[in-house]
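The following block was generated as part of the benchmark described in Methods. Ligand: beta-D-mannopyranose.
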Amino acid sequence: MKQLLNENWTICKKGSTHTYSASIPGSVIDTYYKNSVIDDPYFRDNEKIAYDISRDDFIFTKSFVISEEQLESDYLFLCFEGIDTISDIYLNDKKIASTDNMHRTYRFDIRDESVPGTNQIKVILYSPVQYIEKKWKNRGYAWGVNARDGYQYIRKAHYMFGWDWGPAIPDQGIFRDVYLETYNKGYIEDIYITQKHNKDSVDIHIRKNIVGDHKMSLRLDVFDEDHVLITSELVSDKPVIISQPHLWWPREYGEQYLYTFSFTLLHDNEAVDSKKYSIGLRTMEVKREKDVFGESFTFMVNGIEIFAKGANYIPEDCILPRLSRERTEKVIEMAVKANFNSIRVWGGGIYPADYFFDLCDQHGLMVWHDFMFACAEYRLDDQVFVDTIKEEIKDNVRRLRHHASIALWCGNNEMEWLWKDEQTEGRKQEQMDEYLVLFEDIIQKIAEKEDPDRLYWPASPSSGGGFDEPNAENRGDVHYWDVWHKEKPFQDYRKYYFRFCSEFGFQSFPCLKTVETFTLKEDQNVFSYIMESHQKNDGANGRILSYLSKNFRYPNDFDSLLYVSQLLQAEAIKYGVEHWRRNRGRCMGSIYWQYNDCWPGPSWSSIDCFNRWKALHYFAKKFYAPTLISVEEEGFKATIHVSNESKHIQKGTVAWSLETADRQVLDHGKHEITVSEHTDFPVCHLDFQSLLSDFESAKSAYLKYEFKNENNELFSSSIIFVPQKYFDFKKPLINYEVSQTDNRYVITLRSNTYAKYVEISFNDFDG
Ligand code: BMA
């Protein structure tokens, strides 16, 4: 039996008498803001105030009743699914535990400390700022990036100490459920379900960990999606067989069929505990085979090779009580709308809540899951630190391994690569050895023991570990940052044929509506103090302008500058993704940096923290669509491609025409094509050298191209042959019509001329 203890808490700064009421999930910053003790921490530079609040210790208390019956139970636990972070926990003024890791699930036996009637929990949360400052002073330098010194010494999400897209707000709190658990006779500690796929059936093997006496047995009832009972049997060493199984597939490849596995623990035929899981039946592998290019890196589900399309996910907020299933549901739905089939949970954040993975299972998104280690050197000379990491890995793998959507576990973000980098040159062998011990021994062993059927990948990027060219182009996954961090033109994406690009990105500003939430009118200049203090990547506002100057004309005003920065970002990422999709087979993954934001500010994201779509997200919807028509142009030559990621053959017509901005047709053509499933097809090679060789013609002609398939679905786009800034755009006259159907408005736009980047926005709502 589970009894939630989330309501009626009080929060008080240590040493103060002033208390605030709160509920769980709850935090100091959240409570202070709700009680008007502080202003919006995301407004202007209020971040600094929020940081200083975390220099104090805080006490969270709650009274609750334990009945005689509960007290007499055979087992009585107090559970915390997320304590952030360093704490001492008291029950009725007796210390029952200390915690040091927000990523763990804690469960304490409280039979000795509890009393019948009213009991009091007291959680003292110590300052994380003081904690890391002290460690930094005593333990000394350890390599790290972006965040406040010492962030690697605490098992608290790294981004909370600042990152190159987020503020330093190391809030304190209890961010997941607190509850009592009572059991009689026994309980289910843990269940692990594995699948062996045969031709027409799946063998389900169940590994169970039951606490209680020998009279216990475990029954499994399997229900299909229509709640029809498929099988009911006592769990034994023999597999449970599901015949004619409905398989789970990533979206676009098939249905996301989920069975319900319901376990009941029986003691002398009396049910004493139960657990339920949603299970997708599928095989999930990463194919790594030598080939002419090097070694493949391909997600493979039910034996089908899949091109992974998606982006990197970061925590949705810095103030964790603001997270919710409803909010994440929108974020996942927007990923689906933009035709993602994958998402990478990046290692500098938190392990997402269960609902994140439920949603990924339901929507068919494959999850690349980093463990929460990023861009830092972790010293292993403190056994307590090593032990808490071991428990963290175990807790999370056990919590999540039954999810069909999780494709792989990855040790960390960018650590193997960074040890090979010039920044860490001259580091001691001892520290490199420690890296190997942590990620290629300790964590790897736990992940492989707890979840032997899933790939453990040592780092992102990696070629398989052991410092063997971690960021190699032709093996493993790659983070490619020369575009942006090294200011290379985005056209450089086409120089590379990565096997799986798990990070590449380009920054932009959020739209004016979002900028208005954190600025005053006087701040609305990209080089103002406030705009720069929301830019966490050094000098990046200038970098956006530098890239912009190479591609677009100087924008008219602040709002246009924000908008054009988004066009630039969208064009850059499209340029890379279309190239990699044209090279399907050699490249099998494009996961851009980054999907979402944790606060309002410029970043690499494609949706901002209010879920407003940047231009990139609209572009992603097209460049990640299962059917993509794209053009590889070189000078005045162009090759049209149709990439078909869907499981159906695509037949239809490709039509192209070279036109001037005022729509005079210079050349045109048509091709009937058939594109097999899961392939890219080069449709035709065009050469406009003679038509466009003089600059006057080149700067006024655009190539439009479309593919209409047998179902009359239309895929289209256009390119120009000179930088946007030189193109002879005519001022468009755009008419619109709005019609209403049952549950939606349809807006139709018509332009008298080529209108390349048209945005529709609404003053009073987001559409
Ligand atoms: C990668 C990520 C993040 C970072 C991003 C942008 O290195 O792993 O650490 O925010 O690049 O710099």
